[in-house]
Write a structure and sequence with these properties.
The protein contains 23 helices and 20 strands. With 758 residues, it is an alpha/beta fold. Among the domains are: 143 residues, Pleckstrin-homology domain (PH domain)/Phosphotyrosine-binding domain (PTB) (PH-domain like, Roll), CATH 2.30.29.30; 140 residues, ABC transporter transmembrane region fold, CATH 1.20.1560.10; 242 residues, P-loop containing nucleotide triphosphate hydrolases (Rossmann fold, 3-Layer(aba) Sandwich), CATH 3.40.50. Strand 19 and strand 20 form a beta hairpin.
Length: 758
Amino acid sequence: MLEVSKMGSEVVPALSEHGIACEDVAVFAALDMDLDRSRADTYLVLTEKELAVLTGQTSSVGKPGKKFRKEFRETGFRSYDAAKIKELSIEEYVSTARVVCEYDGEDTVLAAMTKTVLRDARIFVKYAAPKLEGKEEEVNEDDFRDDRFCPRCGRRYPDPDRKICPHCMEKSKLYRRLFTFAKDYRRHMALVLLGIALTAAMGVAAPYFSTEFFYDRVLSQGDPWYGRIVTAALLVLLLKVGGMIVGAVSGVISARVTAKVTYQLKKTIFSAIERLSMSFFSARQTGGLMNQINNDSNEIYWFFMDGAPYFIKNVVQIAAALVIMFIMNVPLALCAIVVVPLFALTIRALFRRMNSLHARTYRSSRALNSSLSDALTGFRVVKAFSREKEETERFDRQSKRLARDSRSVTFFNNTAFPIATVIMYLSNIIVWGVGGWMAVTGAFGMTYGRLLAFLAYSNLMNEPMFMIVDMAYWFSGCTNGMQRLFEIADAEPDVRESAEPTSLGSMKGSVRFDNVVFSYEKGKKVIDGVSFEVGAGRSLGIVGKSGAGKSTLANLLMRLYDVDEGTVYIDGVDVKDLSFDELRRDVGIVSQETYLFVGSISDNIRYACPGATDEDVVKAAKLAGAHDFIVKLPDGYDTMIGFGYKELSGGERQRVSIARAILLDPRILILDEATAAMDTATERKIGEAVNELSRGRTVIMIAHRLSTLRDVDSLVVIDDGKLVESGTHEELIRAKGKYFDLYKLQLEALRNIGITEE
């Protein structure tokens, strides 16, 4: 058997139920989604006769105190006749992928996955596809040499490019590094620790004065303190109020220090993100980065604000209570702690089980949220295709799964943890019984007051026990948060500025691509050996079907990514030798995907050039065809736009974006489908403005509508990442190649709706 992924023992019985024995399996792989895009354990199993897809959920089960084992709960099984499968392959999307094939003459989706397990799926297809055709693929050991996992513990690296395992690394280094942010607040931290120590001391002293001191001295005739009830009460009150005041003051100081440290940490992380390359953001979801900056920082904040001080205080109190208990009565102290080991073992087992249940609930919740997000985001599509019933059924399935898993968590919490509480309460029962006997018989000098004091200290030890267990999770969350944040801070940009950049002085604007090769993913070329040139002050049109690589050329020119092979030149200088400031100042881009910040229209246009005057802003807006609609708004150029404010249409947003690029006044202007969201009249108006703006500048236009490129000086045609044609519009029409085919298709489409080219 060729195990692309390790086959766990929990899967074997499930396969056996469907008549599949381990010795019959030729290729095996594990994926992480089911066909409705929810998280699941999905296994691809190829035998000589069939390709089976087994789906379910894996969880840890076992009794407290015993070793847990994995259990697989099947939710689906599909079998495909191997003889009817053809063209086994993988379809990749932005964040997911699918294993597909032609089965019995029809296109069939076998399984879905996230990009996390895409590598395993590729290897499965590589070796399974030949076997389905009756061939054998020689096994390459390099395919199974997986450097994504830590060799020490076997866990996946958070960042495959940085071989750092958060579980095996020295966590003390993380905390030492965090404390470098607090080096200016050492005195404040010392005051916080002093406050915690004083609070703990007062908390330990209070039970003595309210029990043994009060009953055995204040109420005992012949004692110097006899009858001084008010004094004793004031003494206890002073300890309580004093501890509360000291705790409040130290809490305020702690809040100030922690807030400042967290602020410095967030600032450092955001500064690190700002210098990273586009590839960093392409590989991560925006929501994930927001969580890392906000949630992880807040996790650290609350750990040091509440968790750490509370933990230190309780540890000191527990230690002090234990010492006092042993000083007061050694036999009774031993009786009080006899159940602690049993409690610790029980809690450890319970939390392991709870982790498994919460993980399952989290997966169900995420699947439900994904279904809900898809339905709400694509509500127009759902209504248009009358798929309300199907979406309701899909949501119902996910909702039932979440309800079932949530019920399991609630049932477990309401039954298991009370048992642990009873175990810990047994120490009090033992102290009451043994201590009561001692007080009655006078053994070991036990008195009624001392027994009450001992019980108070026993409770002082027992109460924080659950908190100490919780502290392990707070500590783990804080450590993981720090590790993720420092991963960002330490990440190195793929695109780096030259140590000694070349200055062009005054950029002329000539551009040359020399045998450029580029791929977003290793082994998948997006640009393959492209070479072309556009002179300074000239215009170039780039055409091709969607996904051909047109926008990638613009990204490479602006050096948002670096080429894998070849060179991109501006004025004869490699763009890698130019400074970022000069490159971004003299190369402007307007893409189809516009983004406007929350603020006024004027501020959004002025974003390209903060020092621009109002007259410059208005001039740029007029050139972009935006002035007419802006002045009709209630507040004109001061109209607030963005989330919660005035919403602009797609065409209006695009014109504001073009005005922003015009205000930059670049020597090289890239228009990447810049007029795609505009009507024909506006497009023609902007075309006239661009023609005026193009004088003395280099303009590179990327467009699907070929009519917008008729007036450019030259054209290049990109197909599957390769340059297949170049020349003027007339030359390419006469050549009757790829450009001619595209132009003819668009011309026929226009004629069908009654529009003819002039």
